[in-house]
Amino acid sequence: MKKNNIIFLGIGVCLSAIALFFAFRNVPFVHLVDYISSINYFWTIPSILVVFISFILRALRWQLILKSVQEVSYWRAYHPIMIGFMINCILPGRVGEVARPVILKKNDHVPVSSGLATVAVERVFDVGILVILFGVMMMTVQVDPNFDMVFGKYHLNKDMLMTIRSSMVKLIIVLIAGIVMVSTEKVRTMINRLIIKMSSFLFFVSESSKEKIKQKICIPLVKMVENFASGFSLIKYPKEMLICVGLSFVIWGLSAFSYYIFAMGSPGIDLSFMEIFSVMIIVCFFIAIPSVPGFWGIWEAGGIFALSLFGISGKEAAGFTLANHVIQIFPVIVMGFVSAIVTGVNIWQVTKEKGESDISHANVVR
To answer: 148 lies in which domain range?
Structure first.
């Protein structure tokens, strides 16, 4: 395992262990087991089916985003996206986000930087939709203004939710501004000129060294900027943009519906669809924090906190969140492995190649 992955895993293990401790410290293990045993697992079948449908739509959305770079068939988009999400569930550092473009590069000769740009666009859609839905949640769902949960040295309350919302709004503004800048030809040309002239600013090195820096660093950086710009060129196609926005709302609606279906068989989780939607959004914000593969600990902390906002007791909140976590990621892991088998992708080789400097020669075993 590479040094960076070890560091990410170490940080993730520590954060997840702390999160698990504070999430479950007030729930006796026997009570947790009793609750998990009381769940009607018949409801896992339709819940998993909805998860599967949401990923079918995710692949369709990514295929549309990729059209701005290169035409890719649906299944050529579906398999990398499932393998990428599966890798995120079993390996640290969210390497699945990079593995996707690596697979796409091997199969369809799409430059990795362009593929990464399309993944970034996808994330902008996701974050943007979640921020919008979070705003709607704060206006429509009743949250006890006096609620306060101590989580280590932090106080999780309504004010903290508003702070998170503000931070996410700022993040989405910065992301959109960056995409617009890179996608605007005049701005991009100016950025490229500055990159090419970087070597000339190094007055303390020889001319031959400046030329080497230009050839080895500056020109590849310009190429990378151009490839990223091609990945972001979806903004030139309003129709595809609107379809992607619509798909994003449906995807997150289905994700929340999966939670809601599972809640039907979970004793004590008597929440409306909008309240369950709110729980899912808060969990998504929590798992943005670095953690171990599969988001263990961080997911549970977010779920217990979110459910507590609506008066769900610790035992029910802990049991539902833990069981639902398994229900949400298990089908993703299975579907990812099936895609890897179907396409002949060597998962470990992909994750190894993604970290090499010459990523354009990633070796995906077929």
So the answer is: 3-361
